[in-house]
Amino acid sequence: MIAIGPAMASQPAWLKAATIIVGTFILEDVATVLSAIAARAGEVSIPLALGALYFGVAVGDMGLYGLGAAGARWPYLKRFLTLPKRERTQDWFSSNVIRVVAISRFVPGARLPLYTACGFFRAPFLPFAMTAVLATLVWTTCLFLLAMRVGGWLLAHQGGWRWAGLAGFVLCIVVVGRLIARLQTVSQ
């Protein structure tokens, strides 16, 4: 996803930003961690990395809303959406859109079903978008700073094993997120 090393350092800024943005569409937390490590290693500037992360995650969130809205219009697409089953759901999503979006940003596995449900049930877009962007700023910044700290320590103190440590750190982020999402699914 994001190549860390001399190859990345020599790339133009637009290509670094594009790589990070595309990475957020694949696995946004992994893209955040790898971007932070690349920033710590001096291969990408912190403002460029954070700007690309914010942009990519926000566009992805708006895309999930759009996917839900499209699913409401086209029955074929609706088959692929995971939506809550409740009476008066549209009213509930409309009145709780800020709370739903803010909380789901911090709960692994919640964004896809809840953001698409917001679009499907026509929750007001402006509060959705503003809350998604603000929650993204908080979550992405915190994860980025944590990854810079841990990644910097691994780069500085693990010698030849630093890449194994970095891979383990990234794998840990992915596994913990998947585990929490799976536990949520089982408890429902």
TrEMBL record:
Keywords: Cell membrane, Membrane, Transmembrane, Transmembrane helix. It is found in: Cell membrane. Residues 45-144 form the VTT domain. The keyword Ubl conjugation does not apply. This is VTT domain-containing protein. It is a multi-pass membrane protein. The chain crosses the membrane at residues 51-76, 125-148, 160-181. Pfam families: VTT_dom (PF09335). It comes from the Bacteria.
